[in-house]
């Protein structure tokens, strides 16, 4: 017997002027119902039957039960039948403007298949009726065809959707619920300020150039255009012994993280900060490196979670960390905002060396550092150790190791233009894999990473790369620093606000994130409370791992007036 | 390049790597210069309307990407290491290589020049009319199929694709259909999408690209269609997992590239693209005539920008070297696409007209007797 699909639809509050407590008559009209599909509405909140009476300000929530069929589209029309007195006032009724939810966001609301939540395709409110159109996923009946391909078990281990689309969904649902509210997004860390002119004009020029014979370029080197690689090396790694050849330009750090996971394969284990940017853990699960999710600890098996909390200054107690081949480390940290000190990173390098591990160092926020914290893992000197050159069978004749710094034998660094240049949509980043970094059999990691990049990737967009080159010109750097400075000012405003309200606040000095402590409270509850009461979107700390419970991340990307308004609202809520 | 060192004054003509050469029409590059708002949703809709009209594919089922090669790896991550795969032989190397990387392929068999766990479907020659004999193909979970084909240039007919879909349905397999060259089809009886075949939505994913359609090889834009009907054996929708991969391991194609893509699919843009495609196909015709005049058997070149030239009894690397040495023309040895590519050379039609004429002249001059050489060997 096939399961019944249930879809929930929450319709916007109608705003009607006039008398309180009018009657609503609910008329269910189903259309486009395909053979065998039955739709019967069950009203959840408030629990009512038709006809019903709903207090004016109440939002209406109902569930739609869809029994199996070939495919089902059902529409429920809720006709607001005003009381007789109001019938005369009909022309004065104020109607909420039509809203529709993007179907992309809705599609990704498949949560767990067993819960059978169907996506809401559109919500429209016009002509006095609220219409929720729900399309359930392909129903499983005795006639429905399935392939004989087993689902990748690793995908089944993932608990829910990726964190940020979930935040986007909640934001969208909130905007439907409060169509007049001015929702301010300090949740997803997406930049808001325009890209400096010097950078966009370089991209426009490159785009136009593509229409000329002289300016047209096809496939580029998968590792990136030489001038850009050289500019990255000289801008960020001057004097650190990293050369153009060690740089792999990409379409962003998140994509690089997945490629690094493909590089390492499924037989490695990883250590990750707790809390941390969700892509490290999620990509590890997808690659098959982890065990199953353990609900009690809220952790995946086989991952070493390195707790970072106020108690340890947001740097893990390495003596308590078990062995793992790969150590993901992000500094300045997303979400806590903590920037590791030189001393701390030296300990980390030492730890990696002792264990023969590889550090994957995420420096996407390095340009937000205000103090003298290291901006690159390659700033850390290692112990005196020299690899013999020319004796490695994997190297071609003439290739040799640099004896510069054995730091190169433990780390990969990944970074991005996203938060520096507002390139979150343009897509550009890079990964540094030093030639000296070797697998246990002596094979250079860079050779394999190059193979991955050539086989599983085809280079970053040439237009984005032109933009990247302009970013690293003197004028471009100056402009980027200005935008970064602007976001840092936003961060200061948010930090001051929460401090003035008596909260313990972390981060914010070296990163565009503020990590606010709500001791003893569930972070999703705080997220919901802030969203519901101030219409500000934040990110609940537990979305970043169990170590994030009790915290909320507030991002500082926003127009100044929105930041100020958000802070006003925080002060109102928590005074 | 070694050749450049050996022949410093030779003007090398590249008909090797299938990289587009003609500039992008202005209407498209201008659009990229002025970023279009909400390009992304509009992009998916435009793709659905342009390429999947009347095939009941909605914008929700389209995932815009930075190119087919990247999507193939994402599809491999989706399936994981425990699935079995079949590829055409010869085929675009990314299918096999990504399969090896993800752990599906098993060890390499030096003698057979094949990976032990991959099923290779022979379709590189006229012996099988460039379409595999499916009655000889064992069941695999995934079947990679490219049409029009890189490298052979063969565009599968409707009947052939119906057999493929039937085969997949019968075996409960998933076809990963690469339609990157669909816009080059001139024989309109050949399907441009697998979804033209009834029942394909329950057995196929389609991967495609703007690279060869619009000269976007450097701009980076493509898409993958995952129908909502496509399910795993337990009924779980494949699209749900693919969406998760795309959210976790990717962050979208460049917004600028997407604006360009949208302009490509505008009436003016699309017209301009077709003009460039015609240009390349006229190049292909010239090359086909050239090789034919040398009494060689030439395949492809009609529904794809690749010629598949047969040199019976030869080693394709030897032919590649001979052509390079004698005429300074770069091609690709068929062996590079798999064991089934031996004896063949792939010649691409992506070049300026002048280069094509020059290449033809050189080939005619140096190989006027080549056809006879291979005629005798047959």
TrEMBL record, chain A:
Any one Gene Ontology biological process term? systemic acquired resistance, salicylic acid mediated signaling pathway
Record-linked Pfam families: Aminotran_1_2
Tell me which domain of life the UniProt entry assigns to the organism this sequence originates from.
Eukaryota
**One GO MF term, please?**
pyridoxal phosphate binding
**Which keywords does this chain's UniProt record carry?**
Aminotransferase, Pyridoxal phosphate, Transferase
Q: Which cofactor does it need?
A: pyridoxal 5'-phosphate
The Swiss-Prot or TrEMBL record describes its family as follows: Belongs to the class-I pyridoxal-phosphate-dependent aminotransferase family. LL-diaminopimelate aminotransferase subfamily.
Q: What is this protein called?
A: Aminotransferase class I/classII large domain-containing protein
Q: Which organism is it from?
A: Carnegiea gigantea
From TrEMBL, chain B:
- The protein's required cofactors: pyridoxal 5'-phosphate
InterPro entries named among the record's database cross-references: Aminotransferase_I/II_large (IPR004839), DapL/ALD1 (IPR019942), PyrdxlP-dep_Trfase (IPR015424), PyrdxlP-dep_Trfase_major (IPR015421), PyrdxlP-dep_Trfase_small (IPR015422)
Family matches, as Pfam families? Aminotran_1_2
Q: Return the protein name.
A: Aminotransferase class I/classII large domain-containing protein
In the record, the note on similarity to other proteins reads:
Belongs to the class-I pyridoxal-phosphate-dependent aminotransferase family. LL-diaminopimelate aminotransferase subfamily.
Task: Answer yes or no on keyword Transferase.
Answer: yes
Q: Provide the alphabetized UniProt keywords.
A: Aminotransferase, Pyridoxal phosphate, Transferase
Q: Which NCBIfam families match?
A: DAPAT_plant
Give a GO molecular function annotation for the protein.
Answer: pyridoxal phosphate binding
Q: What is the lineage of its organism?
A: Eukaryota, Viridiplantae, Streptophyta, Embryophyta, Tracheophyta
Q: Which GO terms describe its biological process?
A: systemic acquired resistance, salicylic acid mediated signaling pathway
Under CDD domains, the record lists: AAT_like (cd00609)
| Aminotransferase class I/classII large domain boundaries | 41-352
Organism, by scientific name, is Carnegiea gigantea
């Amino acid at each position: 017997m096939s399961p019944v699909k249930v879809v929930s639809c929450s319709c916007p509050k109608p705003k009607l002027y006039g008398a309180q407590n009018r009657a609503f008559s609910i008329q269910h009209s189903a259309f486009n119902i395909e053979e065998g599909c039955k739709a019967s509405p069950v009203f959840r909140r408030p629990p009512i039957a038709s006809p019903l009476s709903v207090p004016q300000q109440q939002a209406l929530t109902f569930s739609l039960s869809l029994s199996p069929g070939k495919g089902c589209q059902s529409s429920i029309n809720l006709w607001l039948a005003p009381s007789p007195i109001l019938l005369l006032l009909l022309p004065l009724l104020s109607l909420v403007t039509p809203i529709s939810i993007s179907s992309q966001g809705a599609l990704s609301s498949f949560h767990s298949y067993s819960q059978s939540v169907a996506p809401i395709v559109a919500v429209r409110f016009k002509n006095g009726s609220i219409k929720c159109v729900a399309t359930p996923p392909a129903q499983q009946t005795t006639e429905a065809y399935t392939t004989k391909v087993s689902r990748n078990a690793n995908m089944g281990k993932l608990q829910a959707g990726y964190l940020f689309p979930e935040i986007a969904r909640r934001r969208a649902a909130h905007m439907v619920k409060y169509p007049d509210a001015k929702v301010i997004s300090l949740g997803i860390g997406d930049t808001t300020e325009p890209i400096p002119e010097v950078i966009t004009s370089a991209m426009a020029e490159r785009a136009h150039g593509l229409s000329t014979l002289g300016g047209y370029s096809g496939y580029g080197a998968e590792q990136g255009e030489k001038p850009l690689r050289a500019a990255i090396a000289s801008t960020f790694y001057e004097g650190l012994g990293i050369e153009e050849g060690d740089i792999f330009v990409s379409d962003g750090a998140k994509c690089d993280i997945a490629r690094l996971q493909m590089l390492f394969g499924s037989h490695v284990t990883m250590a990750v900060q707790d809390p941390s940017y969700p892509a490290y853990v999620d990509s590890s699960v997808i690659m098959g490196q982890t065990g199953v999710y353990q609900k009690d600890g809220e952790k995946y098996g086989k991952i070493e979670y390195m707790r970072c909390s106020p108690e340890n200054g947001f740097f893990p107690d390495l003596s308590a960390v078990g062995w793992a081949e790969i150590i993901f480390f992000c500094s300045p940290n997303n979400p806590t905002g903590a920037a590791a000190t030189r001393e701390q990173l030296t300990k980390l390098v030492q730890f990696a060396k002792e264990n023969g591990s590889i550090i994957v160092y995420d420096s996407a926020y390095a340009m937000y550092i205000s103090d003298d914290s290291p901006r690159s893992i390659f700033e850390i000197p290692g112990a005196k150790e020299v690899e013999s050159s020319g004796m490695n069978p994997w190297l071609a004749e003439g290739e040799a190791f640099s004896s510069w710094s054995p730091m190169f034998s433990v780390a990969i660094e990944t970074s991005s233009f996203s938060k520096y240049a507002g390139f979150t949509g343009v897509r550009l980043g890079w990964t540094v894999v030093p030639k000296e970094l070797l697998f246990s059999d002596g094979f250079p990691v860079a050779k394999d990473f190059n193979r991955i990049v050539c086989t599983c990737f085809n280079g970053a967009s040439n237009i984005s790369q032109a933009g990247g080159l302009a970013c690293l010109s003197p004028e471009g750097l100056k402009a980027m620093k200005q935008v970064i400075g602007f976001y840092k000012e936003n961060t200061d405003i948010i930090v001051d606000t929460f401090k003035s309200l008596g909260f313990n606040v972390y981060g914010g000095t070296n990163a565009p994130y503020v990590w606010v402590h709500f001791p003893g409270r569930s972070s999703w509850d705080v997220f919901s409370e802030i969203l519901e009461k101030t219409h500000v979107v934040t990110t609940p700390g537990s979305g970043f791992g169990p170590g994030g419970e009790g915290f909320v991340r507030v991002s500082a990307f926003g127009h100044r007036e929105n930041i100020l308004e958000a802070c006003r609202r925080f002060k109102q809520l928590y005074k | 390049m070694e050749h450049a060192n050996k022949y410093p004054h030779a003007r090398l003509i590249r008909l090797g790597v299938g990289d587009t050469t003609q500039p992008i029409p202005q209407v498209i590059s201008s659009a990229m210069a002025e970023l279009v708002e909400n390009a992304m949703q509009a992009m998916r809709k435009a793709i659905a309307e342009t390429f999947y009209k009347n095939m009941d594919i909605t914008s929700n089922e389209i995932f815009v990407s930075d190119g087919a090669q990247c999507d193939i790896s994402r599809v491999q991550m989706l399936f994981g290491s425990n699935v079995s795969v079949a590829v055409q032989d010869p085929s675009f190397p990314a299918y096999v290589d990504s399969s090896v990387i993800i752990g599906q392929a098993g060890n390499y068999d030096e003698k057979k020049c094949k990976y032990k766990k991959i099923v290779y479907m022979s379709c590189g020659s006229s012996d099988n009319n460039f379409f595999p004999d499916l009655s000889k193909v064992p069941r695999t979970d995934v079947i990679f199929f490219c049409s029009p084909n890189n490298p052979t240039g063969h565009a599968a007919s409707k009947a052939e694709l119906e057999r493929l879909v039937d085969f997949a349905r019968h075996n409960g397999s998933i076809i990963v259909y690469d339609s990157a060259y669909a816009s080059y089809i001139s024989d309109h009886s050949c399907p441009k999408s697998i979804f033209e075949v009834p029942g394909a939505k329950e057995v196929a994913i389609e991967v495609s690209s703007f690279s060869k359609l619009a000269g976007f090889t450097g701009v980076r834009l493509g898409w993958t269609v995952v129908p909502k009907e496509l399910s795993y054996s337990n009924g779980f929708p494949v699209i749900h997992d693919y969406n998760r991969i795309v959210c976790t391991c990717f962050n979208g194609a460049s917004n600028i590239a997407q604006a360009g893509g949208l302009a490509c699919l505008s009436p003016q843009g699309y017209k301009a693209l077709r003009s460039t495609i015609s240009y390349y196909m006229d190049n292909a015709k010239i090359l086909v005539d050239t090789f034919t005049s040398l009494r060689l058997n030439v395949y492809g070149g009609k529904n794809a920008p690749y010629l598949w030239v047969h040199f019976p009894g030869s080693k394709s690397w030897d032919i590649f070297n001979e052509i390079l040495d004698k005429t300074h023309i770069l091609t690709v040895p068929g062996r590079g696409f798999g064991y089934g590519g031996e004896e063949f050379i792939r010649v691409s039609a992506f070049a300026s007209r002048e280069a094509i004429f020059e290449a033809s002249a050189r080939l005619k001059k140096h190989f006027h007797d080549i056809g006879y050489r291979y005629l005798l060997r047959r």
